[in-house]
Structure formats: structure tokens, C-alpha cells
Amino acid sequence: MAREGIGLRVAQWRDIAGLTQQQLADAVGVSRPYITMLENGRRSVDKRTLLDGLARALGVSITDLTGQPYPPVTRADLETYRVVPQVRAALDEDDNGPVQARPLDQLEVAADRAMAARMACDMEALGRHLPALLAETRTLWFDNGDRTAGALLVKAAVTGSLALKAAGWIDLGIRLSDLADTVAAALGDPVCIAAAQFAVAQCALSTTARKRSARLAKSGAEDLDRLTRTKLPPAMLNDVLAWMGVLHLHAALSDAALSGGDPDGHLAAASAAARHVTGDPWRMEFSNANVATWAVGIALENGQPERAPELARLVDPNQLRTKQRRSRLYLDTGRALFVAGDSEAAVRALLAADHAAPGDLRSRATAVEIVAQMVRDAPQRGGSEQLRDLAVRVGVDPLAPGDAR
After folding, report:
1. What is the DSSP letter of 229?
2. Has residue 124 been placed in a domain?
3. DSSP code string of 237-257
4. How many CB atoms sit inside 10 A of residue 225's CB?
5. How far apart, in Å, are the Cα atoms of 61 and each of 55, 165, 211, 364?
6. Which residues of the chain have pLDDT under 70?
7. In terms of domains, do 50 and 85 share one?
8. In the prediction, which pLDDT does 197 show?
């Protein structure tokens, strides 16, 4: 099943809403010709702020415009679909029989494997570990008040939220992040609270709640910064610094999406924290290479796409340990090259993203939108052999007509 461009969905929702192109353009803050080109497939939605503005003006959700979650067309896609009902069942305790929880040491291993599976973009492995982990830690926490189980439940919920939100299941991502937030608050553990805040902020940014997203990340980073000024055990200080840095990264991205604030200041704070973090707390790969990877995407959101390829060249992909981070670096590089008008280089970067994490690119609305636009803009039908290959990989019809309607 070929995936439609956002422009076609904008036209469909605008017709339903009874808005003219001029009325929609005025509400979003763009020109009527821009809306015309968007709906006709001659422009793409390549910025979060524009997608948010269109969704707000039309009174719909972002997923109404992106079409996510995408129907499965490959075995890898199907693995994600299989995880979703299992996770929902794990959260709906009234619909299940008694849960027999494993010993805590086994649950700790399962939590680590679930977090590693997310960063490896391995939905099959995530499906083997996450649903049971959620059900068992949920039982131990809510029935027995076991604090270790509660902390593992936060890890499981944060992991599931980040993985499923990225695949387009934003409603389930929100539900999991809210669960993590509730449990973390009851535990009173600052690291768990920070992790949950990050998941909630990520989900908020995936809707149209950009201000809430920025506020959560900034307040969380400030709370942890104050905590670093107290005497903490070394292991806890390491985790606190890691999550403080991660929240600064999200604050930088949120500020960039809001076209305000201090994204460079937050990036600098994250970089400073990364210099003192050892190991890989919560399998988040918080490192200087990862900070530099975030900087590429932040430049795109900050209206500086010309900086993104330069920033990407400063990152050594070999220093990124996980498939998820390498894929993200190449994806954002491809987005920047597309905006710069270098479609051939954009195709190569996006193919590199798919090679880094096979199948992950298919779930990314930004990648699907860009590839569909390059196919429509290609001088010959279907474009180059590389572009046709990329189109098939992300579920776009390489022989689609030039106009969306």
C-alpha cells in the first residue's frame, strides 16, 4: 500500500473543514500559493512548526496529516503491529488473568534487554521483552508497592513510550509516558522523575504542545542541576548528569521548534554534562557524539538547514554505538540536504539511514514526505535507480504521478 503525501491529506481535511486555501494560509501564516503547491504535491512539509500549524488550523491531530501509524507491508512493519496490542493488554489489568511475576533480578535483565532493543531498532526483540515486563512490574508495584519493581516499571514505560511514539503510535506513547510519570512521582526518585519527564516532553512535541514540551524539559533539567550541587553517591550522580543532559537536548529541540529560547545554551549544557558521564545509563547513549547528532536536527528546526550538513560532517558515525542514533544522524542529514536542494546527496544520506537501521526509516513521517516529494520532482518518472530503491524502502510508489490531485 503506497503512502500518500501530507499535502493530499491537508486538501482532504481542508475540504471537510470548509476552509478556502486563503483561509488556511492565513491561519497558518503562509501564502495561498504555498498551500496550493502543498496540496498539488509541489511542496513538502519538512518542518515540525509547519506541520503543527496545519494541524492546529484544521483542528486535527498531527497523525491525521501524516497518516501514522502506517499499515504494515513488510515483516518488520508487522513486528511493530504485534507489539502494540500486547502492550495495551499489559496495561489493561482488568482484561487479564493473574500475573505471575519473575524474580526482580530477572526483571532487571529484561528491562535492560528491552532498552537495548529500542536502541537497536529491533521491534521483534522489544516485543519479546516489553509486554511481559510491563505486566509483571505493574503487578509488583501496584499490588505490593515494591520500589525496585516500580523503578523497573518506569524504565519499561519510558522505553515503550519512546519506541512506539517514534513508530507513530502517539496515543499509546502518551499513555505509557503518563504511567511512567505517575509511578516516578510516587517513588520520589529524581532519576525516574527525569526519565518520565523526558518521555512526556517527547510525546508533547509529537502533538502540538510545543510550549508544554519545552517547559517540562527545562524544569526537569533545572531540578537535576540543583541536585548536582548536593552530595550524591557516584552512581546516582552519573545517572543525574546523564538525564540532565538529555533533558537539555530536548529543551534545545523544543526551543528551536518554537523559534525562540536558547537552543545553543541548552546544547552547550548538554555537551558539558556529557564530558562527565560514564557508561550508558538507561541505554540512552548520552555521549558527545550523540549531542553532536542532536545538534544536526536542532539546526533544521531552528531555521538553519544550511548548518546541518556542516554539523553532520563533524560527527564520526563510528562513535555512535547504536543503530537508532546512526540512523537518526543520516536521516537529519538527508533532510538538510533536501532542503538545500541537493536531492542526489539527500537520497544517499537516507539510504545510509536505512542501511544503519533497516526498516526504521519506513516509520518516519519526515522521511516518507521527503522521498515522496523527490519522486514527484524527479525529471524522469520514478527518478534515478537509487531514488526508486529508496522509495520502495519507505513505502512510496516510485511511479506516482507528479500531482497529488
Report:
1. T
2. yes
3. HHHHHHHHHHHHHHHHHHHHH
4. 16
5. 6, 14, 16, 16
6. 1-2, 94-96, 400-405
7. no
8. 98
Q: Please state, in angstroms and rounded to a whole number, the distance separating the CA atoms of residues 165 and 105.
A: 28
Cα separation, 351 vs 337, whole angstroms:
13
Residue type, 102: R
Could you tell me the CA-to-CA distances from 342 to 166, 278, 353, 384 in Å, in that order? 26, 38, 17, 14
Judged by DSSP in three states, 26 sits in: helix
Cβ 321 vs Cβ 353: under 8 Å: no
SS (H, E, C) 43-72: CCCCCHHHHHHHHHHHCCCHHHHHCCCCCC
Residue 311 has which C-alpha cell?
554539523
Structural domain contains residue 145: yes
Strand runs (DSSP E) across 95-140, as ranges?
A: none
Residue 1 confidence (pLDDT):
47
Distances (CA, A) of 263 to 32, 81, 190, 260, 366: 31, 35, 24, 8, 21
Phi-psi region of 285 (alpha: psi -120 to 50; beta: other; left: phi over 0): left
Provide CB contacts within 8 A for 325, sequence distance 6+.
Answer: 119, 285, 289, 290, 293
pLDDT at position 95, please?
Answer: 58
pLDDT score at 401 = 58
Q: How many domains, the chain?
A: 2
Burial label, 113 (beta-carbon count in 10 A; 0-12, 13-18, 19+): middle
The secondary structure of 322-377 as a DSSP string is SHHHHHHHHHHHHHHHHHTT-HHHHHHHHHHHHHHSTTGGGG-HHHHHHHHHHHHH
Q: Which of 43, 66, 89 is the last residue of a domain?
A: 66
Cell of 319: 562513535
User: Which residue type does 308 have?
Assistant: A
Domain end marker among 66, 97, 118: 66
**Cell representation of residue 33:** 500559493
The pTM of the whole model exceeds 0.85: yes
CA-to-CA distance for 241 and 270, rounded, in angstroms? 9
* Count of other CB atoms within 10 angstroms of residue 192: 27
Element (H, E) at 185: helix 170-187
| Contact call for residues 177 and 148 (beta carbons, < 8 A) | no
